[in-house]
Design goal:
By secondary structure, this protein is α/β, with parallel strands linked by helices. It is built from 22 helices and five strands. Helix 21 links the parallel strand 1 and strand 2. Helix 3 packs across helix 21, helix 6 packs across helix 17 and helix 15 crosses helix 17. The longest helix is centred in the first third of the chain and has 28 residues. The radius of gyration is 25 Å and the shape is globular. The N and C termini lie far apart (76 Å).
Length: 505
């Protein structure tokens, strides 16, 4: 108990940060409707949980399987599949919060900076959004934070065990998403932290090179497990959907850069906020200490960010989430230095509020009125305002479950992959009275299977996206023999989610 009484301020701070973290992540965690990517990943996890031969199912779409593997565990204990999938990201966010403490403390050799780093991550709007969604990005971010941490430990201590651990962390990250490749791409920049000013020890330097190579080998050996799947080759194909190949890029290296920066730059500012960007930038000017450490952190943001701007073919705000965590630590450093300059606690608190005020405002809106929050429209479109958002899914599931209690029903969906039919399948696939079938493409003539089913049992179909004969998004073709059961208008103009009942012919 002496450790708690001797360091009670530290432990009270830790408990406070954890309470803040869990409150911001768990409060209204199911308020946002399921969206397309969540439906896909949760359905994959269910299939993999029920059939071991499909543990690499994510590779069929070119996605690495780590999220799916972890979600399998949560699905065994959590009844609601959406909650189970989102708790994976909450768990990843907790790993990130802890990792931010260790990284901030280690790189600047200061416990208070570590605590500030964790606190800022707990308040970070970007993290609050994605730590509550059943997607890969929180897990990737946790991997990146711990990769940076063990990289710092390796270059400062040069031990084989640290090289091995770093390799395993990078390997785990690579099994989550390709972004973790920066773990060894940026490994040479760790030499910024190498003590070259001291008497140069050739043997020690060669040891560092050797242990860094050990990390790279271990990471690639772990990643090689994916070659056990016949779908491994799809990863490379899928990557080319989102990034330009070097062959395409070299012909016009700046053709995509400016266009991508027009998206990436504003997205970064919206999530990080201008006051905090100024705070983080001031880390290079408030004092002349730890310049190499600050540059090292900046590299972990600038290089991946610029690489995405040059090579990104399809980009979303969440792709830069993992890149921005090093900026938070720079901001934590500036806040710490300001606290040394300004001794009065109320002025320190005021400075903290000034630089994090937009974090706090956005956090409040994210927790109480997501649609009004100051986040990129690209994220709002996917999560709440546009057709990728599953507005209406929970009402559909409730309605169909009640109908299935009376006998067999048939449910069609507009689409065969994505939000539909997966969002319905994750809740209804094990119900013996429910048959779910997706249809695409949609034309003026209703599918024969749908018409045949309507003659035998109550038959329904969900429309939620656009199609050539649809008057508006989520509105079925007028020629189809349908009666609306309910319809929800989205925030986007002329966009709806509609559950129809098929009239027997």
């Amino acid at each position: 108990m002496k450790i708690f009484t001797k360091h009670r301020i530290f432990w009270f701070s830790v408990i406070g940060i954890l309470i803040l973290f869990f409150f911001t992540r768990l409060y209204h965690i199911l308020t946002l409707p399921i969206f397309t990517d969540e439906a896909i990943y949760i359905r994959w996890s269910q299939i993999a949980a029920n059939d071991a031969s499909w543990r690499f199912i994510s590779l069929t779409d070119g996605k690495q399987p780590m999220y799916v593997w972890i979600a399998i565990v949560f699905l065994k204990f959590i009844h609601d599949p959406l909650l189970a999938g989102r708790l994976v990201s909450v768990f990843a966010g907790l790993l990130s919060t802890i990792g931010m403490f260790f990284l901030g403390r280690e790189i600047f050799k200061n416990t208070k900076i570590g605590l500030l780093s964790s606190l800022l991550f707990a308040l970070y709007p970007f993290a609050i959004v994605y730590d509550k969604l059943a997607v890969y990005d929180s897990l990737v971010t946790a991997s990146i934070i711990w990769i940076i941490y063990f990289t710092v430990l390796l270059v400062r201590n040069i031990r084989l065990d640290l090289g091995m651990i770093l390799g395993m962390v990078i390997g785990g990250g690579m099994l989550t998403k390709t972004n973790a490749d920066f773990g060894f791409i940026l490994l040479p920049f760790s030499l910024l932290l190498y003590p070259f000013k001291k008497k140069f020890d050739t043997k020690k330097f060669l040891k560092f090179i050797l242990f860094a190579l050990v990390a790279v080998v271990i990471a690639n050996v772990m990643y090689a497990i994916l070659r056990l799947s016949p779908y491994y080759y799809i990863i490379g194909q899928k990557n080319l959907t989102f990034i330009y190949s070097f062959h395409d890029w070299i012909r016009e290296p700046f053709a995509f850069f400016l266009g991508n920066m027009k998206g990436l730059g504003p997205w970064f500012i919206q999530y990080m906020t201008l006051p905090f960007v100024i705070l983080a930038a001031s880390a290079f000017f408030v004092d002349k200490k730890y310049i190499k450490e600050k540059l090292f952190l900046l590299v972990w943001f600038v290089v991946p960010f610029i690489a995405l701007a040059f090579f990104g073919k399809v980009i979303y705000p969440r792709y830069i989430f993992n890149m921005t965590v090093s900026i938070l630590i720079l901001g934590a450093y500036s806040l710490f230095v300001f606290s040394l300059i300004v001794k009065k606690f109320w002025i320190q608190a005021l400075l903290f509020l000034v630089f994090t005020s937009m974090f706090l405002v956005n956090d409040f809106l994210l927790l109480t009125n997501f649609a009004a929050s100051y986040i990129p429209q690209a994220d709002k479109g996917q999560l709440i305002t546009g057709w990728p958002s599953g507005v209406g899914v929970s009402q559909t599931v409730d309605y169909l479950q009640k109908q299935a209690q009376q006998g067999k029903i048939y449910v069609g969906t507009e689409g065969t992959y994505g939000l539909m039919p997966y969002a319905l399948q994750i809740y209804l696939v094990n119900n013996p009275n429910v048959t779910i079938q997706g249809f695409w493409p949609i034309d003026n003539t209703p599918p024969s299977d749908l018409i045949a089913a309507a003659k035998k049992m109550p038959t329904y179909i969900v429309f939620y996206q656009s199609c050539p004969p649809c008057q508006n998004t989520g509105i079925a073709p007028l020629q189809w023999p349908l009666t609306p059961v309910f319809q929800i208008k989205r925030i986007d103009p002329d966009s709806y989610y509609t559950l129809y009942k098929v009239n027997p012919q």
